[in-house]
Amino acid sequence: MRVLVIEDDPEIVQAISLCFKVRWPEASVVTRGLGNQGVEAVEIEMPDIVLLDLGLPDIDGFEVLRHIRLFSTVPVIIITVREQEVDRVRGLEAGADDYINKPFSYLELLARVNAVLRRSSFEKFRTSKLFTAGDLAIDFGTQEVSLRGKAVKLTPTEYRLLDLLVNNAGRTVPQRVLLERVWGPEYVDTPEQIKVHIHNLRHKLEDNPQNPHLILTEAGRGYRFVASSKTTTTQPAGA
Ligand code: CA
Fold this sequence. Notes:
By secondary structure, the chain is an alpha/beta fold. The protein has helices at 10-23, 35-45, 61-69, 85-93, 106-127, 156-166, 175-183, 192-205, and strands at 2-6, 28-32, 49-53, 76-80, 98-101, 130-133, 136-139, 144-147, 150-152, 172-174, 215-218, 222-225, 232-234. Helix content is 41%, strand content 22%.
């Protein structure tokens, strides 16, 4: 799990980091002390959850949230000392998933994070069970992939790679993020891993692997799955 903490108070940052380290030792916590840097980090680091302070030195936390919501649906928990009801409502209306007031206990923070993550993964599962892009179909529930109605056998690594690209369709996923999410943090310096697997995926999914139309290389940056105009995401009847 990747956590982004946008907070300028080092003590709070330390408390949150410690909390995550204890409960989720595999979590990596990224911190930004300014709102603008925080927005940028959502784009670059692609966190699974964001903890956002409202009182930041440069721009207001609400403004940060508004910017994030222009391009991302990442779960956001607002952390604030402001206790007024009006702020609470404003934050939730602006697209925050939950609220926590400073000072908070570890247990309280963990409970909020757990609840938000549970909701977001449920939402993802519920709304993106069946995905089709042209001739390609992916069932995220059963992890089955088919091309023109014929099953395509993917290795677990290929499936995870495809899953990550498709779930970020239209956006370039940085190489580093792919390596960390699909292989693990210890693989971030081995980009050749990706090349081989992208090559294999293209041979299994593309009409012309030499001239790919689904999985594009963004030189020096990463890879981008292209969602065509025919792309649809539906929920099967009765699911
Ligand atoms: Ca602050």
